[in-house]
Amino acid sequence: MSHLKEKLLKKIEEQRPRTTRLLKDFGEKVIDEVTISQVIGGMRDIKSLVTDISYLDPNEGIRYRDHTLDDTLKLLPKVPGGEMPYVEGLVYLLLTGEIPTDEEIKDVAEEFNKRKNVPKYVFDVIRAMPEDTHPMVMFSSAILSMQRESVFNQKYNELKKGDYWDATYEDALNLLAKLPEIGAFIYRHKFRNGDIIPSEPKLDFGANFAHMMGIDKPYDDVSRMYFIIHADHESGNASAHAGHLTASTLSDMYYSISSMTNALAGPLHGLANQEVLSWLQGVMVKLNHQKPTEELMKNFVLETLKSGHVIPGFGHAVLRKTDPRYTIQREFCLKHLPNDILFEYTSLLFKVVPPILLEQGKAKNPWPNVDAQSGVIQWYYGLKEYDFYTVLFAIGRAIGVASNLVWDRALNYPLERPKSLTTKMLEDAAGI
Ligand code: CMX
User: Fold this and answer.
1) Atom 39 (ligand 1): residue with closest C-alpha?
2) Exposed, middle or buried, 366 (CB in 10 Å: 0-12/13-18/19+)?
3) Catalytic residue among 241, 269, 323, 408
4) Which residues contact 320 (CB under 8 A, 6 or more apart)?
5) What one-character DSSP code corresponds to residue 367?
6) 331 contacts: CB under 8 Å, gap ≥ 6
7) Which position among 44, 62, 250, 335 has the lowest Cβ density within 10 Å, counted as fewest Cβ atoms?
8) Cβ neighbourhood burial of 81 (10 Å; 0-12, 13-18, 19+)
């Protein structure tokens, strides 16, 4: 048994009695009340999920295993010569709750190496798709096509409930190990005339992805940063929730991560990173790539709002302050690309959008989210095909969701089944 799996088993054995006790002795304790606006309004803020892997505070941002994002980046061991930590270290932290040593990171890297080979038919599936297929459709389909590999699915009839987590863990590592190669394949197939760069087993998760994308340093660090900051955002966000919901029927990891990917592909969620770049490019073209004045930028923002569209990259369902994932990327830009014209555009947006949204008075959070800044960095390092950006988000998000799914099975979280009401029932409750 690998060190990671042994450690995980120990943690699971410690955790199980806590969940059992809560259910058995305190199952009827009330922890929330639900209003009509929450019922109609997308179940907003209803406390109805449990995860120990991450927690999103509206004012502070995400914590991974109780570490803020800044602390996570500081505490996780860094790749020698790089500014960012190993993605492998984050996998260890999310699964076990502990900051890994160098040895423990090596163990995860070896586990990934054993599992990296992507079956040839996956590439055939991608190649068979029409040229104009969106990269997210390719990514989701590639994952789904591998469902036949699922250890959980293959062993389901002989598994005892207490061992579901073990097969799910195998699926999680098998799938995560393959995602960088699948993502890079989609990119090179679609945007680089199919000139595929083979995987380099000696490289870590982030560096191998940069290598297969064909982008030089420091893109390895950009990839590590990107995958780490996007990895998890509690269980209630649409992509994580879609993954959790699918897995709650005992659908396996492949079905579940494909579901996660599909939810991420909406413009109100992960696709916003593509939308930001597409929107900014539109502005730049209109301005003939000159730096806009504050006044001009305000006009573009107002025009967009007037047309009934949201300003992509701003606002959030939970956060009420600037997203720390935005700030981390902004600091990276200030260090590595301070004079980039696109960065200047996003900095100007940071200045003009919040006051406009505040004045409009609709958005509960006028501040930028992760997606406002991420495309700028990708563009700077040569990844200009912005409809690929959400695939990067998906590789990162899969790390958190897969870790959660292992724990879902370890703690036997049951089938999800919230209750619907009719409009008449709500009217009756309101006394109408
Ligand atoms: N531009 C314009 N209007 C906005 C807005 C924005 N950036 N953010 C919120 N609003 C509007 C909403 O559309 C809503 O309007 P209606 O009442 O007419 O429907 C109103 O303000 C209230 O919305 P809210 O409660 O503040 O926000 P929600 O929780 O409903 O939605 C989010 C959150 C992220 C979907 C929304 O802020 C948005 O559409 N932002 C732009 C898209 C985006 O950047 N998404 C990425 C989020 C991060 C991620 O998941 O990747």
Assistant:
1) 268
2) buried
3) 269
4) 58, 59, 364, 365, 367
5) S
6) none
7) 335
8) exposed
Q: Is 371 a catalytic residue?
A: yes
Tell me, using a 6 A CB cutoff, whether residue 320 lines ligand 1.
Answer: no
Q: Are residues 149 and 119 in contact, defined by beta-carbon separation less than 8 angstroms? A: yes
Residues 6 or more apart whose Cβ sits within 8 Å of residue 51: 234, 235, 404, 407
What six digits make up the tokens of 398? 């899969």
Task: List domains and CATH numbers for the chain.
Answer: 272-380 (1.10.230.10)
What Å distances lie between residue 199 and 93, 155, 205, 212, 372, CA to CA? Answer: 25, 30, 10, 6, 31
Cβ–ligand 1 contact at 233 (below 6 Å)? no
Token readout for 94 is: 């999310």
Which pLDDT score, from 0 to 100, does residue 288 have?
85
Edge-to-edge strand ranges of the sheet holding 67-68: 54-57, 61-64, 67-68
The sign of the dihedral angle between the CA atoms of 62, 68, 73, 76 is: negative
pLDDT along the chain (432 residues), means of 10: 94 98 97 96 96 97 98 97 97 98 96 97 98 98 98 98 97 98 98 96 96 98 98 97 98 98 97 92 85 89 94 95 97 96 92 96 96 94 96 98 98 97 98 96
Distance CA 342, CA 333 (A): 10
Distance CA 43, CA 61 (A): 20
> Which residue puts its alpha carbon closest to atom 19 of ligand 1?
362
